[in-house]
Write a sequence for this structure.
């Protein structure tokens, strides 16, 4: 059992880990269950993470003691709820490296955050002939809105290709990012390849041409220290549910100068200043972009997720995953002909490990692993264009997080070996 | 349970998966249709050689998971020699079996029984369905006189 | 103490009630607390309702046992989560009177539901010179999107005025709803006046002219039986948080023929069929409109709220609130010169009671009541145009729900009497 | 606690609220500004009669809650007789007090101490602020020579 070794760090194979995984694991009630008679090994973290007890309790606590509609409420519950909600905003602003609280907008997810930018900033600033640059490894959330916007505006959609190793191919970058570029929208970390992209460098280049830069940090924010000011981007989008928080909460960071000029997205209560049938003025930031009753309870509970991650330390989270990814690569190499996608240098990638077996379809891999208690994802991972580039219809993906350890990787590898026997191919 | 896994991947399914029938190209293709489920990437070609309203030969080419490959292989085996009308009825029956609307399977279609195990895996039903729906689409277009072109269909939309 | 009388129904004042309020109350943990030394009386239900234990537990349960990203997942947790999520959709389809499950779209709230329609159906179907008809009593959520759409499209925004009694003034209706009307968007129940509007009748009239009809049922769905097929409207929008459900979940009902033709709103994962850089096809209904990871946990927990309401019986909920509104009117009449807005016939209105004191500003009313443990709302209630019609800058609003009883009303009235003494005006 | 209620509605606040000062129209209006908080509907007019850079008289007309009325009434009382520069400094001090950045209050401005209780009610701070911010806006415009027109401001946006 390698799990023991994560505590005293004496195993040759695993090396010392920066997180006390056994202790972390115990904070996640869901992990303590059996699936098809096997202890659950949850390796679908790139899709959504599990929640520590403190987050679940924060939700419970909110509904048991505090719940009320927020803002403008003059009773105690409404004041408490507003305080808690706004405290999370302050916390997010600190967590992402210190930005203004007015630059943090709560949405329903990364997808809505990016759509908001496309429908407001994009609608007003992208014109015929303008160029939008994305990459070949974008998740549909950072792809479909731009494809549709480009079609609507007769703008040109260009993409940065990837190399055979799963990095961005920057050899022709000066032909791609040009004075015509109005927007560079790229992922910080690929949800399929794990690749960490040089966002700072590309943002600087795009800015030289006066373009606006949006980084999809849905995969990086949960897994490594992300400092938005040093990334130097104009917009960032991410989801709470991938970083220990509840479902239904997303964040849009936007530079104040840009947000100030953008029209609102969802219009209704709380986002207006004054309404007449023929004239409307918008509320100040960030409220202009938070029309309607927000997802108060989940935003409040997200605060506990941030606190939990800070207590672990994001650099420790990153170190742990980097080591564990290395361990997984090592062990997976025991499976002859198993093809792993994305960079092999663990320092340049996160812990999403996509792989294919030459003879077994990813769906069958996933179904088989599930029968052994192991949850991974199989499919196109909402990155169909990337799949086409990789020449795959689908991949299997095991993705790591703070509560995974060497034992989980061992269980995965052993099940894969058994699987090959089972299918006999 | 591992039993449910073995329910889905019954020996007969694994056998069809490992050595799919209908691999050989046809001498003459009268009906051709293709199926594609973008959500999982499964792709299938179903081709029939028809003689006097009877399926003389079947060619199935499937890129997909064990379930879709096995299902397509069963199709190749079962449909061969049937009239077009019979083939269509069998495809309808398979749809009903997979949706749990029908459980009785005629003796001569015994292999199909193995598909029942898929019902416990809702996400996989469309894999098992793909070849059959593709066949039906081809037959429909053939009957309505739209010959020559290739019919195209998907079970992703869960509409059938 | 009138609360006793709600159980045996012998009090002259209160009459028998159709709900066992004491038992209901005990199901809501939040209500069991003191505010400023007084037992909490929660009368801010039109803003957001409290949650019964079964809903809180459903959330807990989901995060402790089931949580995973849904759809296309081939592991057990993902299948369970998908099942639970889709089960709520079936439940909503039944709850609203029996519509197709594909016609139920989950959004983040009423506000997003209406904005979705404005940005997709509205964008494609409203043209220069077309007329959009709303009413004078709309919540900003069903007003701002139409004001902005009308401005953008050079369409004409018309409104049905209200009578002095707070009903829609239908005397000129044939000049308002005409062959030029492309959309009638109206609230089923006013969040300020309580008025229940004749949606069926107006929808029929609008349909005669070929218009599309959207009903904002955010206030009616939680408080009375609402049968969408008999309302005869094309779109309906409401929020889970106002009907015992979690925050962050809204519902859009749309007729299939309309939804089929509409372009999507939030674009990303799960809502596409196939993506290429130059061509995209959308997923089938309802997924076309649910881009990105949905608010799975809260949708799953909403199921328990619907079950709870069904167990009470929506007609019982309505009867209870109707009686309690009558009781409140009777008792509030003890306060000389207190001005109550909206219809006085309890059969034609819900339990949102807006009032003003000739000498005390609604904010001071609310602050004072809070010091006595009573939570009400004061302000414009996101209905500024209506406030202007009423000639008020703000009103105080007490709004009732299933866990309120005569004792709550008594406590409110006594506090109001004390308040007049306190301010000495 | 009811103490916190009494903290906010101190006797001095209630007294100003019941009989607000500065009701009488001015003989001559040199500075006029209006404040409006759409979110709560509070509206206020602040007018000054100026003589030799000194506030000779103040007129305040406020439609709003007890807090905004009392705050406007205190303004009328305190600012009268002060130089324009002093008036501006006092308004700045009130802002700081309400935001909790300042707690020391000079003896001659004793009434202002009563506004401290508002700090416990965050939503009400903008009510207490409105008259002072409106005054400042008028003074600024007057100083920058934009005379004649009426200055307009809000504390809704929480920007100050
Ligand atoms: C009539 C009406 N419509 C719409 C809304 C907006 O609902 P939400 O804030 O949940 O989007 C509300 C509630 O605030 C309402 O009362
Ligand atoms: C890189 C990336 N971007 C965007 C998303 C979309 O996030 P959500 O589904 O929470 O909106 C995901 C997750 O699925 C992702 O991995």
């Amino acid at each position: 059992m390698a799990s023991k070794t994560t505590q005293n760090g004496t195993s040759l194979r695993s090396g010392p880990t920066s997180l006390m995984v056994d202790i972390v694991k115990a904070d996640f009630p869901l992990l303590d269950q059996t699936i098809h008679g096997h202890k659950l090994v949850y390796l679908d973290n790139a899709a959504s993470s599990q929640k520590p007890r403190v987050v679940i309790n924060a939700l419970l606590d909110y509904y048991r003691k505090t719940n009320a509609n927020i803002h403008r409420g003059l009773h105690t519950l409404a004041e408490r709820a507003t305080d808690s909600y706004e405290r999370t905003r302050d916390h997010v602003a600190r967590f992402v490296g210190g930005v203004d609280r007015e630059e943090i907008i709560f949405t329903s997810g990364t997808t809505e955050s990016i759509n908001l930018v496309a429908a407001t900033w994009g609608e007003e600033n992208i014109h015929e002939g303008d160029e939008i640059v994305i990459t070949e490894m974008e998740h549909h959330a950072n792809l479909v809105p731009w494809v549709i916007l480009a079609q609507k505006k007769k703008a040109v959609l260009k993409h940065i290709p990837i190399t055979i190793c799963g990095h961005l191919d920057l050899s022709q970058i000066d032909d791609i990012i040009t004075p015509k570029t109005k927007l560079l929208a790229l992922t910080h970390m690929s949800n399929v390849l794990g690749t960490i992209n040089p966002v700072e460098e590309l943002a600087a280049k795009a800015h030289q041409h006066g373009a606006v830069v949006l980084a999809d940090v849905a995969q990086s924010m949960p897994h490594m220290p992300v400092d938005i000011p040093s990334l130097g981007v104009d917009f960032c989008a991410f989801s709470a549910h991938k970083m220990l928080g509840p479902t239904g909460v997303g964040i849009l960071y936007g530079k104040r100068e840009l947000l100030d000029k953008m029209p609102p997205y969802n219009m209704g209560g709380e986002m207006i200043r004054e309404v007449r049938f023929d004239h409307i003025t918008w509320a100040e930031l960030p409220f202009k972009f938070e029309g309607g009753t927000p997802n108060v309870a989940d935003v409040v509970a997200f605060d506990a997720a941030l606190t939990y991650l800070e207590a672990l330390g994001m650099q420790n989270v990153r170190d742990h995953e980097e080591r564990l990814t290395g361990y997984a690569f090592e062990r997976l190499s025991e499976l002859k002909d198993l093809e792993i996608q994305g960079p092999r240098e663990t320092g340049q990638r996160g812990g999403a490990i996509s792989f294919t077996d030459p003879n077994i379809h990813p769906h069958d891999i996933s179904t088989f692993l599930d029968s052994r208690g192991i949850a991974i994802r199989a499919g196109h991972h909402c990155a169909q264009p990337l799949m086409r580039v990789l020449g795959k219809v689908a991949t299997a993906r095991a993705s790591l997080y703070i509560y995974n350890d060497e034992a989980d990787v061992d269980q995965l590898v052993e099940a894969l070996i058994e699987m090959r026997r089972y299918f006999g191919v | 349970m591992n039993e449910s896994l073995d329910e889905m991947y019954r020996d007969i399914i694994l056998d069809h998966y490992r050595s799919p029938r209908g691999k050989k190209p046809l001498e003459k293709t009268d009906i051709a249709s293709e199926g594609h489920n973008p959500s999982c990437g499964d792709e299938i070609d179903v081709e029939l050689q028809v003689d006097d309203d009877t399926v003389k030969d079947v060619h199935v080419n499937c890129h997909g998971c064990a379930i879709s490959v096995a299902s397509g292989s069963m199709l190749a085996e079962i449909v061969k020699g049937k009239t077009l009308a019979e083939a269509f009825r069998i495809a309808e029956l398979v749809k009903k079996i997979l949706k749990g609307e029908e459980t009785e399977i005629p003796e001569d279609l015994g292999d199909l029984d193995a598909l029942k195990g898929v019902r416990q895996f809702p996400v996989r039903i469309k894999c098992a369905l793909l070849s059959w729906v593709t066949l039906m689409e081809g037959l429909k277009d053939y009957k309505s006189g739209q010959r020559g072109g290739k019919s195209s269909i998907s079970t992703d939309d869960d509409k059938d």
Remarks:
- Chain D has one domain: 3-154.
- The CA atoms of residues 19 and 73 of chain D lie 8 Å apart.
